[in-house]
Amino acid sequence: MATLDSLKHALRRKAKALALVPKQPLSDTQYSAGFEILVQGSGWTTYQDFIIPQLSQLLVLLLNSRTQISALEIGPGPKSVLGFLPYNLRRRVSGYTAFEPNNLYAADLKEWLCSTSEAGLPLPCLKNAPAIHQIPFIPQDDKDNDTRTGAGVNDEKYDIILFCHSMYGMEPKRRFIEGALQLFVEPQGGLVVVFYRDGVLRLDGLVCHRTASFPTSVVRVANDDEVLNHFAPFIAGFITQGVDRDEAIRASWRQVCRTLGRREEAHPDHLSFSSPVVMAAFTQNATTLPELTCQVSLVNKTVKNWEARLHRPASIMRPTEDRHVQQCVQWALKHGASLTVIGGGHSGHCLWPNVVAVDMSAFDQVHILREGRDSFDSGPLVVAGAGCTTGDIVHKTMAAGVTVPLGARPSVGAGLWLQGGIGHLARLHGLACDAIIGAVVVSVDSGQVLCVGCVPSQHQPASAVRPENEMDLLCALKGAGTNFGIVTSVTFRAYTAQIYNIRTWIVPLSSNLDARLRLGEFDRFARALSKNCSADAYLYWDAGLLHLGVAMFESSTTGLTFATAVPTPGNSTWGVEVDIKTVDGVGLFETEMYVSRMHGGHGSGKTSSFKRCLFLKCIGEANIAARLVAAVETRPSPLCYLHLLQGGGAVGDVAADATAFGCRDWDFACVITGVWPRDRDGTEAARSAVRWVYGVASDLLPWSEGAYGADLGPDPRDAPLAAKAFGRNGPHLARLKHRLDPHHILAYACPIPKASMEQKLIILVTGESGAGKDYCAEVWVSVFANCAHRSLTARAVSISDTTKREYAAATGADLDRLLWDRAYKEQHRPALTTFYQEQARQRPRLPEEHFLDVVYGAADVDVLLITGMRDEAPVAVLSHLVPDRRLLDVHVQASEQTRRARRRCHGDSKDSKGSNHCGSDPSILDYYCSTLTFDNHATGNEAAESFAKRYLLPFVHNDLERLANMVRAVPDFPRPGIEFRHLLGISQQPGGLALCASLLQTHFTGDWAKVGAVVCCEAGGFVYASALALRVDIPLVLIREAGKLPPPTVSVGKASSHISYNSKEKRIEMEQDVVPRGALVVVVDDVLSSGKTLCAMLQLLDKAGIRADDVSVMVVAEFPVHRGRQLLRQHGFGRVKIHSLLIFGGA
Ligand SMILES: Cc1cc2nc3c(=O)[nH]c(=O)nc-3n(C[C@H](O)[C@H](O)[C@H](O)COP(=O)(O)OP(=O)(O)OC[C@H]3O[C@@H](n4cnc5c(N)ncnc54)[C@H](O)[C@@H]3O)c2cc1C
C-alpha cells in the first residue's frame, strides 16, 4: 500500500513531467473538498486509537499543575480536535483560540463550537467566546513583516498549542514551532503538540519531549473520478491554471492514484493509502540541545537498521567516557527529554525522530581476566564495553582460548546480551544474558554511575556507587537491560572456547503436507540431541519451491569428538549433507544458512529485513506445523522465511524469575523474517514484508510460549508481543521501571507492559452540599497520579451528571450551567431531586444503573473517585455490583458555617440543606458508618493531600498485591462451582503471617492505644488475630463453638457458611467479662462473605454488653458478591466500621 507521502511525490513528478505550469495554490473551497475526503477516509479509528488517547495523556500531565488551560489550535479545520476529548478534559479548557485561514472552515468551526448538541458544547467551560482568526499563524519573529497579522492577534498566551494537521504549507517547520514556544502562559510550562502525516518531520535539532507514531493508519478514498479530482490536488498541494491543462493533469493524477492505491477485498470501491500519523510534543526545552553539544561531542553516524535510518534523531552524541554519558542523562533529566541508546544499531528503535541518541561505540574495549583479584572471579571473566559488537568479543576471547555465549551475527551489539541473546552455545551455556554477572550502569533517575553485581575492582569506575536495589537491578538487566539505565560495560562469566562441526541439509518439499511431515521429523531429530548440539531449521522458498534447510551444530572444546564420517540420524532422515564444516567461533559467523546459502547468500548481500521472534514448543504438532507452513506460503516476496533456532538445555535450566528473561520453557525460537531488496527500503515492498511479519506473529502468538523482547519497540503493533515478552516477570519489571526510570528517559526501548492494578479501587466521595466533595476528589486524583511507588491513572467523575443530562433534556434547562454554574445548579436542586425521585420510582434499579454506567465508563483507570452519590449506605448496597474491585466511601464533612460560607462563595445565598443524599432521611445516616471520614474545614489542598497519603494511598500499596499473590485459588473446592481462596495458606508462605499482621495493623484507621481487645473466632480468625494481637500487644479474646470454653460464658446461634456442607445451626460463645467495659474492640476474621459468622460475633459482643459503636471489624479478604455488609446492616450493625485487606470477585 503506497503512503500518502509517496502519492504526493508521484503526483508532483507527474505534473513536472507534463510540464504543466503555472501552478497555483488551492482555493478555500478546493482545499476543503480535499480535506473532507482525507478526514472521512482516515476514519474515526485514527482519532479514537491514536490522536485522542495521545492528546489526553499529554493534557493529564499538563493538568497536574493547573486546573484550567487555554488552548490555541493552528489549522484545526471545521472542528476542534480538543472538542473530541473525553468530557473531563474538555471541561478544563477555559480559553480557546484558532488560526484557521480557510474562511469556510473558520465559519464552520465557530458554528460547531457554539452549537449545543445533545452531548452539550464541545468545549463547555470557555470563559469567553472562542477567538477564531481567519489568517495563517505567523511566528512571532515574522509578525512585524507580515501585513496579515493584526495588532495583538497572537499576543495572547496559551498552555497548549496544537498544530492539528501536518503543518500544511509551513516552512521551515522549526521556525513555526519555535514561534509557538514563545506563546506559553507560563514560560516554564506548556506544550506544543504536532500531529503530522506528511512523511518525516524535519526540525533541525529541535528536541521533542514525547513522540509517538500510529503506523497503521489508512486513508480510503472512493475510486471515483469526481472524488479523485478533488483529492489529488489536495495531496499534491496545488492545481494548474487553464481549463485544458487542468483537465489533462487531473486525468493523469487519477491514473497515478489508481496505480498506487491498493484495492482491499473489504473495500472494493475504494483506493487505500497508508498514512502513518506521528505525534510530537515540545516543551520550552525544545531548543536546549546546544547545552549538551558543548559538553559531549556529536557524531554523524549511519546505523545498520534501515528502519532506524528513516528516523531523524535530534542529534547523535558520542560519549567517550562515563562522565559524558552522565552529562547526557543529566541534560535529559533537566529538560524533561528522552534518550535512545545505540549499541550495534541493529534494532529499529536505537534512533527515534527528534530524540537525542547516545552512541556507545567508543566503549569498545574487551578485557579478559583469567584469574581475578576479587573473591567472585575464580573463573575466566570478560569485561566488555557497551559499544562492543558480538564479533569484537568473539575475536578477542577466542584468541585467549575462552568464549561467551552470544548470537550468530558479528555486527550485533549490546542490545543482544541485555535482552536475551540466543546463539549456538545456548543449549550448553544458556543465553548471553545468563552469563552476565555484573554491570556498570548510568542511572537514568539520578545520573549516578552504579556498579551492580560482580565487577572486577579494576573495572569499577572511581565514582561508582552500589544502588540500594542492586540484585533486583542485576536481575532486570539480564533480559530487560535496555530499560533501566545506560549500561557502559558488562562482566560476563566466560567458558572454554569451542570448535564447531556443522552439517547442513537442504530438503525440497513437494507439498504442504510434505512440509508439515518434515517439520515433525525435524522436531523429533532435534529433541534427541545432546546439550552440546543444536539444530536450526529454515522454512523458505527458493527457485519456485518450498524448502526445509537444516543445520546441526556440534560443539566441542577440542574438536576431537567430531567423527564426520559417521552417519547421524540426520543422514537417515534427509540423506547426504550438502555441506560439512569444522570451524572456530569466528568461522561460525559465516556458516549461517541465510548468509551462506539461501537466496544466493543473503540475497547477494543487498537486502534489508524486519524480524519478530516468538518462542514455540512442539513445532511438529499438526496445528503449529500447519501455521508455520501457511505462513511461508503467504509470504509477500520469495526472500521472506522462517528461522527456527533450537532452545531447551541450559536455557530452560534457569528459573523463569531468576532473570528478567521470563520465557524459558520453549523448544524453538521462531524468527519470522521479512526480507526485500535494499534498494526498495521505504517502499511498498518493505511495508508488505513488515505487514507479513506482524500477521504471522499474531497468528502464532496464541500458540506460543512467549515473544522475544529484543526486537520490540514503541510501534503499537509490538504491544501484544511485548505483553508476552517477560513471562510472569512483567508486573515486577513494570514496577521496577517506574522506580528506576521515573522520568521516562528510556521511553523508546522494548516496552514493558504497564502493571495493571489487580485490586482496582473505587472511592465514593459523599457528604453534604458545600462540604467540598468535588474539590477533595480532584486533590485526591492528583495524589494518586503522583504516587511515587507505582504509576496509576486516577479520575474523578460525578454520578449526578447523568441525572442532570436527563433532567436538562426533559425540562429544557441549560445543561452546561447545571454542570458548571453552581448558583444555577442550586436553583434547580429541588426540581432535580424531584425529577430523580420520580425516575427512581419508575426505574427502581436506577441508582445501580447510574453507578455501573460510571464504573464501566472509566474501566481504563486504576482509581476512580465518584462524587454526587445519593445512596444511603453505598458500599453495603453497591459493592456486590463490582465484586472484583475495592469499593470504599469517604464522607467529607465540614461545619454548617463552613458549608454555608462555601456555598455563598460559589454564588448561593440560600441556606441549602440539600445534600447529595437528597430524598433520603438524614437520620438514616445514623445507621451507617462510612469507611473513612475527612474533616474538610481548612482551606487549601494540604489537609486533603495528607489525608489521602495517610489513608488512601495504603490501598494501592504493593504489599496488598504481594498478599493477594499469596492466596492460592482452588477451583471446585469444597464443592463444584466454588473457587476456594486458600486464605489460611498465607500463613504457610515465608513471611506471609508477618505481612498480613503488619497490614492489619497499618490499615486500622483508629487508635490502637484505645483498643482493649482483639476478638476472633475459630479457626481462620485465630491465626491472623493472634499474630496481630502479639504485634500491637493487646489481649486476644477467643470466640469458640459452644462447650469449649469454661463458664461463665455468653452464647448465640450461628448459621452455617455458604460453602459449608453442614447446614445445621451452631452456637458460638465467649467468656463473660473478658472484654473491659467501654473499651474499643477490634474483631478480626479471615473472611467476610455472606456475613453470617461476623453477624453472630457482633450479636455475641452485643449480648456481652459491648456497643456496636465501639466495634471495628478487620478481615483479611472480602467476597462482596455474597453481600455480607448488607446482611450486617440489616441486623443493625451498619455503624460498625469494616476494613478488608483484599477483595476477591469469585464465589
Ligand atoms: C542481522 C541480525 C542478526 C541477529 N541475530 C541474533 C542472534 O543470533 N541472537 C539473538 O538473540 N538476537 C539476534 N538478533 C536480534 C538482536 O539481538 C536485536 O536486534 C538487538 O536489539 C540488537 O542489538 P544492537 O545493540 O545491535 O542494536 P541497537 O539498535 O543498537 O540496540 C537495541 C536496543 O538496545 C538498547 N541499547 C543498546 N545499547 C544499550 C546500552 N548500552 N544501554 C542501554 N540500552 C542499550 C537500544 O537503545 C535499543 O533499544 C539479530 C538481529 C539482526 C538484525
Low-confidence stretches: 148-152, 907-926
Characterize the largest beta sheet: strand count, sense, and whether it forms a barrel. Answer: 8 strands, antiparallel
Kindly state the percentage of residues in helix. Answer: 25-40%
Number of DSSP-assigned strands: 44
Structural class: alpha/beta
* Strands in their spatial order, largest beta sheet: 26-23-25-24-28-29-27-30
Q: Report the radius of gyration as a whole number of Å.
A: 34 Å
**What overall geometry do the principal axes of the alpha carbons give?**
globular
Question: Number of helical runs?
Answer: 38
- Average residue pLDDT: 88
First-residue to last-residue Cα separation: 51 Å
Proportion of strand residues = 15-25%
List the bound ligands.
Answer: flavin-adenine dinucleotide
Give a short synopsis of this structure.
The chain is α/β, with parallel strands linked by helices and 1147 residues long.
Describe the fold and architecture.
The protein is α/β, with parallel strands linked by helices. It has 38 helices and 44 strands. The protein has an 8-stranded antiparallel beta sheet. Helix 21 runs antiparallel to helix 23, helix 26 packs across helix 33 and helix 37 packs parallel to helix 38. The longest helix has 36 residues. About 2% of the residues have low confidence. Bound molecules: flavin-adenine dinucleotide. Flavin-adenine dinucleotide (FAD) binds next to strand 14, helix 13 and strand 21. Pfam families: FAD_binding_4 (PF01565), P-mevalo_kinase (PF04275), Pribosyltran (PF00156). Belongs to the oxygen-dependent FAD-linked oxidoreductase family.
